[in-house]
Design a protein that fits this description.
This protein is an alpha+beta fold. About 40% of the residues lie in helices and about 10% in strands. The protein has a domain at about 15-95: Roll (Flavocytochrome B2, Chain A, domain 1). Protoporphyrin IX containing FE binds near residues 39, 74 and 77. It holds the Pfam family Cyt-b5.
């Protein structure tokens, strides 16, 4: 793709219209925090049920996803369904997600930071115990 070559963090951008077409049980895409998720294979496994995902199919599910207060495990699980990002030109067409949740793809920094923090805290606690 022009303009995106020689970039190892190449992101696949989808137009809103492309996402909107994926609104059936054959192919279910949703947008959360400007990222595009293919949840087709996850429908039956979703602990919150298939129906809530179907209702959001082909559109922006950010608000409903955040309203549920999904656990960090759920957020981590979600990263495995990311197929790309909403095209920047289409972002104003949907509701702006909370600033804190917007990151660029792929996003591992949060987990790396969490792991470092855990090591530090556990290391200190272990130090006191011995
Ligand atoms: C890739 C996207 C998603 C993933 C990986 C995911 C994953 C999960 C997981 C692991 C849970 C169990 C509770 C937890 O760990 O927080 C859960 C619960 C739930 N999810 Fe999702 N979810 C996704 C998207 C959504 C969306 C878009 C909605 C709303 C439209 C939704 C609604 C719910 C509800 C209502 C529950 C049940 C909460 C409860 O019983 O307390 N989820 N989800």
């Amino acid at each position: 793709m022009e303009g995106n070559t020689a970039n190892e963090r190449t992101v696949k951008y989808y137009r809103l219209s492309e996402v909107e077409e994926r609104n059936s049980s054959k192919s279910t895409w949703i947008i959360i925090n400007y990222k595009v998720y293919d949840v087709t294979k996850f429908l039956e496994e979703h602990p919150g049920g298939e129906e809530v995902l179907r209702e959001q199919a082909g559109g922006d599910a950010t608000e409903s996803f955040e309203d549920v207060g999904h656990s960090s495990d759920a957020r981590e699980m979600a990263t495995s369904f990311v197929i790309g990002e909403l095209h920047p030109e289409d972002r104003p067409k949907i509701q702006k997600p909370p600033e804190s949740q917007v990151t660029t793809f792929p996003d591992n920094s949060r987990y790396v930071r969490a792991a470092l923090y855990d090591t530090l805290v556990l290391g200190t606690v272990a130090g006191f115990c011995v």
